[in-house]
Amino acid sequence: MNIARPSFLKALLAALALLAVGLPAQAAPPKARVSVGATLPLTGSEARIGGFVKEGYELAFEEVNKAGGLQVGNQKLPVALTLLDDATNQATAVSLADKLINSDKVDFLLGTYSSHLIEAQSTVAEQYKVPYLQGGGGATKIFKRGFKYLFGTISPVELLGTTLMTWIDQQQKAGKLPKPAKIALLWENTAHGKDFRKGVSDFVAQNKGAYIISVDESFALDGKDFSALLGKVKAAKVDLFLADAHLPDYITMHRQYVASGLCHKVVSYGARGSEKGAIDALGVENVKYILSGVWWSSQLAAKPGPSRDFVTAFKARYGGRDPEWFQALAYLSAKTLFAAIQQAGTVDREAVRQKLATMKVKSLLPGGPLEFPAALGQQAQNPFVVQQNTPDGKSPIIFPQDVATGTGVAANPKCPN
Amino acid sequence: MERFIDLALSAVLLAGLYATMAYGLGIIYGVLRVVNLAHGGVIMMGAYMGWVLHRKLGVDPYLSIPIVVAASYLLGVAMYRVLVRHLPRGAAGGPASLLLLFGFWLVLRNGAYLLFTGDDQSITTAWSTSSVVVLGSQLSVSRLAVLAIGSVIPVGLHLFLHRTHLGRAIRAVAQNPDSCTLVGVDVERIYGITFGIGTALAGVAGLLSATLFAFNPGSGSSELLKSFVVVVLGGMGSVPGTGLAALILAVVEVFAILVLPSYLTSAVGFVMLVLVLVIRPGGLFGHRVLG
């Protein structure tokens, strides 16, 4: 017995060792699908936009699954989207991202909508080293934290200011605007507004002698009275009125602007101006010649290319309705993630992150290919499209020239000489 | 000089809006000693009532004032009977009422999200961007209308409270509810009516705000805060004080732009609130209950 026991133990140990060697191969069964998680503000104050982003994501997933799934290495895998409602709440967005990663075991994350939600939620993705692609939060401060797993398909708001000023500069050089031109720069006191201000201010600093910022004021969100601020603008006798405001403040401010009898050679409220809701609230007559800049417009589908393909697919799925930039950037984010997985040939998070960091893919954005420059926090740097409201209630793209569907007008013909 | 006149006129117009928003909060506090935290929610509901009547039925927002007043009054009476009256006696102005009415506000807000989604809405009329020239300054017709209504309300309230039997009963209850019970005044009924009147005034404020601003179910917070500042400045429960406090707040906020960045001007009111609470807790115009 005493002799037999060591032999038995040796045999048992040997058997266990053999099993242990064999275990890794058996513990990784072939992957049945690629799992992607996301939260969206489907209820609460951002519910409307959350619904738009959902449409973009679902279209992208449907397309890839209809085509048989993603080519990951030598196998084709379907992609599944687990979508949860963060109720436009930062804490919920964070806890649900944690749940998606640790309970639902998703492979990757797509972003929610709105800068403040993304800023909070992306910290969870970074903590667990999960690639996180988003097209709903453009504030540059989100991308200045040195995160490695965060990627933005949405260009910084700074570029909105720069793009508007580039068009204005062309008009000035064509002799349509005075030189130097005096600017009233009004911006909401948020990350969005600060970025816009920086874009305009940097452009002015680079073009000394061409522009003077005479009024540089921020205002609080959800303002009830802009008369004192507009009085300051009036007293400064500026040529260009450049503001950055969310929709409610745009409506309130522009109503007071019109009622005060103000008129400037160029008027812009940043990304606002061409929305149907605003035109209804202010009247076509009062929004004529207002400039606005957006990340993407369905008018980009006028020419063959990724935008036309997207718009055609979107209209087919959603009853002929035109998509807005929200759906487009959501769709682009999902498609870019799919491209990275296919190019990496694996669902390994680190491999996909590295692929995203170095890839350059064809996109529906103005300016062409999409890439995530590391020096700029892995945020896309594609230009905005500038639109101008016309007297017939339309808002054609007037800049960049290569995608323009109309010709811009400066100076504002409504203003008396 | 031209700038000064512009700012002064802007301040007067803004005062009309602030006063309109604050009367409802003031009268409820003056009589019931309840800080109606649902005030912001009722303002939001008033805006939606006006919007529905205008957008769906084509009723002019100013012509819809009686409808909004009636509906808001009924809502206020129901709020009192179903919620506020069940609070422990003596605790009506305490934390229980604050929590209850804040909860009711959340119900209103989420109900509005359910009914109207989170989209921004506004009421647009032919005169939304119209203006008239006064002393060389162009003034918004909509804001002048709000000022006019904001000026009529305290006069109407004053006449109602001093010239009618019901008004005198409300003033009496505000001063001493126990004595009123002894002489046969139905205090519970008076409380219900007063809560209804305060809510109706909030509803009108919401309707008028909707002719000036875009709104959504989340609206009402800033209106409640401004109303609170005005009511405290004016001396809680003082109707004339509320009007004067609205004017002072508006003048300070508007003229502050001469020395402060624009985004800080609205904070001036809150600084005033703190100072008044510390130095003169009864408000700038004393503690005169309902004038």
What does this structure look like?
The complex is a heterodimer of chains A (417) and B (291). Chain A has helices spanning 4-27, 47-66, 90-102, 115-127, 157-173, 191-206, 227-236, 247-259, 276-282, 284-287, 306-317, 325-344, 349-358; strands at 34-40, 70-72, 75-77, 79-85, 108-110, 132-134, 150-152, 181-188, 211-219, 240-244, 266-268, 290-294, 360-361, 370-371, 385-388, 397-399. Chain A is of the alpha/beta class. Chain A has 2 domains: 34-155 and 303-376, Response regulator (Rossmann fold), CATH 3.40.50.2300; 158-294 and 385-403, Rossmann fold (3-Layer(aba) Sandwich), CATH 3.40.50. Chain A has a 7-stranded mixed sheet with strand order 9-8-10-11-12-15-16, sandwiched between helices. A 5-stranded parallel sheet of chain A has the order 4-1-5-6-7, with helices on both faces. A two-stranded antiparallel sheet of chain A has the order 2-3. Chain A starts with a helix and ends in an 18-residue tail after the last strand. Helix content of chain B is 69%, strand content 3%. In chain B, strand 1 and strand 2 (137-140) form a beta hairpin. In chain B, helix 2 packs across helix 8 (187-210). The two termini of chain B are 36 Å apart.
Mean pLDDT of chain B: 88
How far is it from the N-terminal to the C-terminal residue of chain B, by CA?
36 Å
Overall tally of structural domains of chain A: 2
Strand content of chain A: 15-25%
Assembly type of the shown chains?
heterodimer
Instruction: Kindly report the average pLDDT value of chain A.
Output: 90
Can you give the helix content of chain A as a percent range? 40-55%
Highest CATH level, the class of chain B: Mainly Alpha
Widest sheet of chain B: strand order?
1-2
Provide a count of the helices of chain A.
13
* Percent of residues in beta strands of chain B: under 5%
What class, by secondary structure content of chain A? alpha/beta
Radius of gyration of chain A: 26 Å
Give the biggest sheet of chain B: 2 strands, antiparallel
